[in-house]
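Researcher: Please predict.
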Amino acid sequence: MRVAMIGTGYVGLVSGACFADFGHHVTCIDKNEEKIEMLRKGGVPIYEPGLDLLIDRNVREGRLDFATDLTEAVKAADVVFIAVGTPSRRGDGHADLSYVYAAAEEVAAVMDGFTVVVTKSTVPVGTGDEVEAVIKRVRADAEFAVVSNPEFLREGAAIDDFKRPDRVVVGVEHDQAREVMRELYRPLFLNETPIVFTTRRTSELIKYAANAFLAMKITFINEVADLCEGVGANVQEVAKGIGLDNRIGGKFLHAGPGYGGSCFPKDTLALARTAEEADSPLRLVETVIDINNKRKPAMADKVISACGGSVEGLTVAVLGLTFKPNTDDMRDAPSLDIVPALQKAGAKIKAYDPAGVIEAEKLLSDVDMTTGPYLCADGADVLVIITEWNEFRALDLDRLKSAMKGKTLVDLRNIYDPEDVARYGFDYVSVGR
């Protein structure tokens, strides 16, 4: 099959490369000429493990190419994916759908023959109806069907998530389009992956509901962590104890500084706004948003408290800036709240992140970016772990202690055992333990 993927952001590029690896011919399209030129030269504009090799293989085998103009690719396509950004709209928190509708207009103007137009972007309920109306307005004679096919990709594990997903959700109300989508995902049918065919509006809501539920799990265990500190319990053992119940499950029960990234913050906000307008408010989701927004800056207070109540004039070494490991994504990362709060309290910040330094430098000012964890720790009064990159899990604690001026280690991801760290002479502070 021939596929046009409009948007070469995280979702579009990963999805396009994976569809090509399934054997389809895919053209990834983006108006950013620099990004397309980079891809044509073998570069990759985002950090995702294994994506560079996947792109290179499929380009060499002639199944994947890149363009700045969508005309030829859309004319030839059986399926056109819209995978553009839907950021939170300023002022009201709704998803900004202007890029989606603009893409729909451009597709409508050039598509030739029956075409399945798929919204891969995360969009509010009813967006598919609007995309259909846009296309009909531009081309009243167009032969097409609009389908919802939300993504469920975790940054850092996106390729595996695409090729071995828990499920694929397809919102479709047209028999021919259903068969096209079935053929597109045929390799997953062969692997007996559950394919959930439903209506468009239900599919759109499934995506938001899934992300809101996971955000609630994170927020729940973070509140339990605070309770553990108050009563002298261990949040990791609480999480294990409840996670072994298969009705609950152990995933997303890791206490920390709050959720971030490209999905949970904007999707919970958009869902809450949609529910409010439908006169069916989601009070749980609204509370989750409020708790998470307050938790991130509260982690700076935790660091200050660990330093005796003041960081004025102290050097704070920060390990990890991205919102999670194995990505360079800084969107809504906890570090964007924690670092400025520490600076406002008078601290000097040194930082190291294995992949996020370039993006972090665009968002954080007056931070001494270093090239390794021990250089970061050199001369620091306190060390703070914000992101749980694998290379931070087995640091040489003797070397770390020797490099530091002080002996305070604040582990916001609970990656170390308190007793082990104490043996090296650190004053160790973690979350919920």
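Model: The mean pLDDT is 96.
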